[in-house]
């Protein structure tokens, strides 16, 4: 199915509308509702996770194993940060809560690529 082919293999973190647009390019008949419902089904089955990294913007992430995110201030681009690259201390020591999950969202801008 085209929706699965796109959203489960993308390296990006698309919004539902971005998924819809990508699928529509190949299958113009597919409806927005179909895409939305399919994404929710994928989410319920743990195939994608749904992230709110910016206010009012829900994106889907096919990488469901723990990892962190970098959000580019200028472009809004979302990049994955490997779990091991950051260390968050004392999560286990938080009082009065039972932690199920956590994620660090790093914001900033990308440095220009280094030239040799
Ligand atoms: Zn991600």
Describe the 3D structure:
The radius of gyration is 17 Å and the shape is globular. By secondary structure, it is α+β, with helices and mostly antiparallel strands. The protein has three helices and five strands. The longest helix is centred in the N-terminal third of the chain and has 13 residues, at about 30-45. The mean pLDDT is about 90. The protein has a three-stranded mixed beta sheet with strand order 4-3-5, with no helix packed on it. Strands 1-2 form a two-stranded antiparallel ribbon. The chain folds into two domains: about 1-60, Winged helix-like DNA-binding domain superfamily/Winged helix DNA-binding domain (Arc Repressor Mutant, subunit A), CATH 1.10.10.10; about 65-110. Helices cover about 25% and strands about 20% of the residues.
């Amino acid at each position: 199915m085209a929706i699965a082919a796109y959203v489960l293999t993308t390296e990006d973190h698309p919004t539902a509308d971005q998924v819809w647009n990508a699928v529509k390019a190949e299958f113009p008949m597919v409806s927005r509702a179909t895409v939305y419902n399919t994404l929710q089904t994928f989410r319920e089955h743990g195939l994608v996770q749904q992230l709110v990294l910016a206010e009012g913007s829900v994106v889907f992430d096919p990488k469901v194993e723990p990892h962190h995110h970098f959000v580019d201030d200028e472009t809004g681009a979302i990049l994955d940060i490997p779990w091991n690259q950051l260390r968050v201390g004392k999560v286990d020591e938080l009082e009065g809560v039972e932690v199920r999950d956590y994620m660090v969202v790093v914001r900033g801008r990308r440095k220009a690529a280094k030239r040799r």
